[in-house]
Amino acid sequence: MILRTPSELLSASFPRSPARRRAILALGAGAAAFAVPTAIAQDADGRKVLRVALRAAETGFDPQRIFDRYSVGICENLFETLVSYDYLARPVKLVPLAAESVPEPEEGGTRYTFRIKPGIRYANDPVFGGKPRELVARDVEYAIKRFRDPANRSPYEWLFQGNLAGLDELAERARKEGKFDYDTKIPGIELHGDYVVSFKLKQPNYNFLYFMAMPNVVPVAREVIEAYGADTMGHPVGTGPYVLAQWVRRSKIVLERNPDYRGFELETRYADMADEWDRRAIDALAGKRLPLVDRVEVSIIEDDQPRFLAFLNHEHDLIDELPFEFINQVLPNGRLNPQLASQGVRVFPELQPEITYYTFNCEQLPGQPDNPVAGYTAERVALRRAMVLGHDRNQEIAVIRQGQAIPAQSPVPPGVVGYDPDFRTDAQDPDPPRAKALLDMFGYIDRDGDGFRERPDGRPLTIRYKYDVGGQEKRDTAQLWVTGMASIGIRLEATGVQFADLLNDKRVGNFQLAISAWIADYPDAQNFLQLLYGPNTDQSNESRFRLAEYDRLYEKSLTVPDSPERNRLYREMTRLLFAYAPWRLGVTRTFQHLQYPWVRGYKKHPILYTNWKWLDIDVPMQHAAVR
Amino acid sequence: MTAYVIRRVWQMIPTILGVILLIFILFNWVGGDPAQVLAGKISNPAQIENIRHQLGVDRPYWYQLWVFVKQVFTFDFGRSWSTNELVSHIILTRIGPTLTIMLPVVAITTGLAVLFAVLVAYVRGSLSDRMVMIVCTVAMSVSFLVYIIVFQWLFGFILGWFPVQGWSESFWKNLTYYAPLPIMLAVFVGVAPELRLYRSFFLDEIHQEYVRTARAKGLPENRVMLKHVMRNALIPILTNVGINLPGVFVGSFLLEVFFSIPGLGREVVTAVNRSDFPVIKAVTVYLAIITMVINLVVDVLYKFVDPRVTFK
Questions:
Q1: CB of A40 within 8 A of CB of A577?
Q2: How far is B5 from chain A (nearest CA, A)?
Q3: What is the pLDDT of residues B221-268, one digit of tens each?
Q4: Angle between the N-to-C axes of helices B144-151 and B180-206, in degrees from 0 to 180, rounded to the nearest 10
Q5: Rounded to whole angstroms, how far apart are CA atoms B262 and B256?
Q6: Where are the domains of chain B?
Q7: What is the pTM of this model?
Q8: Coil, helix or strand at residue A322
Q9: Residue B28 touches partner A, C-beta closer than 8 Å
Q10: Which chain B residues are closer than 8 Å to A74 by Cβ?
Q11: A302 and A57 in contact (C-beta within 8 Å)?
Q12: ipTM greater than cut 0.85
């Protein structure tokens, strides 16, 4: 065997000519030159630049046509709603934005009249022909109608379905004729001059103001929409503090300060001086004309590792929703990692207004496979309740979610109007012995000795659980269900499907048990309790839960403003949920948001997606850190 | 040769029609309902039906298929269902970043694989040869994802030699600043299997009688390897490169996701997840055409590499 060194290997084939050696050295030097040290491009004239990352790609910036939170978060900065939320107030509080004031419900909660502030201008756009364009009431009317235009396929059409007089008829006519008539006036939207718009609802709705605070419900200029036609996603023109300066789809979004924006000051009257984040925000922002950040550079980084590493590398100034897999590195034993602490990194823990839950399909649909968990008989309810008791939610929190969650005690999460912090029940606490006793009592017994129970009539019992395959966490929770049910003698088979397929299966009732989640569209319990409202079956009521008593309580709660009476109704609905177990309540997740010390004024809002217009940047500190 | 090329081009048409039919059947059979994804959190059956109507998926299948065929031959696939961006714009803007990564990867990987394959084939059976084969086997056994995670962490974060992620609008900045790490990663992963394959090609040639004759005639070893063995081994190497070349135009989804490169690979997977049929259609047809064209080019190149090849 002939032994050869690497140099011998090379020299055997290539003669050692000086020219060749020089060529190789030059090649190596060139390759080394490519490996430049990382350098963050800095704004040379000292402008304040905020650098952030989003964890999912955007779809576009036409507010009436989008629903993904990342695109909507960008739109929050480009457009303005009539009313919005105070930055510091907790619980959240509505405040005027484009409107002069937050209107009071009139005519028993069926009328809301907004007065728009005069002089609010849209960002400059060629469509306006060089002339300033003021925000007027008809822009609000036009935007609302766009939700019901079938051509827009608006995901938020439901906001204005069945509530504004005349709008449903207009939408139906558009469906038949193929074109929406924006010029037809409807009794549901009244314009009084250029600055007053009044909405007349068919029924009382005390959450209508929250609808109007949603970032999709923003006025738009009709001439802009008509000019850009099919390309409105890429040409957002709003009255917000920022404009879209650059957009490389799925890669980078750059917002620049809107030169035509009127500015605002931080409202401090709802601040809690005992809260250090409020104090810091006031110290940083009080008395200054906002927004202070001149430019926001948004990177799209879909995977967790590069997003996290980019933050550690000072490529970004903050990271919202720290990926769970890095929790133990950043917060070992719940305390900030000393290296990060030494850099002055701050952590804002947030309990998001959302819940996860596992939904049983309570209905046996014709043509669908036999569903052993469907129905409202004592046996079926007992089976569902036993499965709830057999599912170890504590392990899910401790292991799968790494402690970054709290058990959901009710379908209404903390931070939402109607949440009762004192409400507690053990109806959904893990209790395998109780689960087994319940199953035994109602005839779910292992007759053939295979370790798994059969139905009361002796037929085999297999529960099918569906989850979407996007993410290890979903697979882990599925496995937890399999083992948990096995421990109480129930055979459960978990099937992973694509997200779109899971959506479809849940909508058509092609499942027995599936994972779900819901984040607040607006901060009221109604947004969560409507998930079990019978008439919402085929829509948001995935469990197809139809209980007359629940529906009666829900409909009554719609006619009542926020009050102890309404909270009582909510409690009753929650008790019915526990009694009939259409859901296994999951968790409310805790997210950790990190910022470097040069980001000033930070406080994560539970409902608004971004807080960029309330931030300040200490430029010298930022520059020093990234050099 | 002209007649051969024309005949091959004609043969592409039934292949394209077969691809169209296959994609259409697959999408409508196993593809998710795009209306469900686009409908948002709260919607009712009427809204779902409206979305289907707007997308045109409520039309009879024969009509949808006819529209698909027209789109292929006019190269107009309309707009993305999820973002409303023109599909042609999607492909034209995403192909650049993909090729910025993949073309250097192919060139460097092929070059290195051929070089090292020649060297180890030359010293076949030696300790060096076996060590290289062991290293290649071990390297191939590690998942690509592991390489990405480790390389990104080590070279991007710990050593700081490269940015962790990112992309710019400048071609040169992308090529010299953002692309080197993903290129290096892909080359590192791609060289091992190709080196092993090309080594076997060279070994097949080395054992041929003409090589023994050439040595017996007193030709220097490097001339034997580079002029004679290499030339004959190029045919299967060319075939292998040709097989892999269409993949260059779609790129590596993992690289593009982890390094935040706005390329076509990432776009395709997003389109599949969203059941965005116009994008899926366009990329599939475009890839089929590219594959057929590359196969034709490779077949024509055979003639120049090996003059004994004739076209029938």
A1: no
A2: 39
A3: 878 877 778 888 888 888 888 888 888 887 888 899 899 999 999 898
A4: 140
A5: 7
A6: 94-263
A7: 0.86
A8: coil
A9: no
A10: none
A11: yes
A12: no
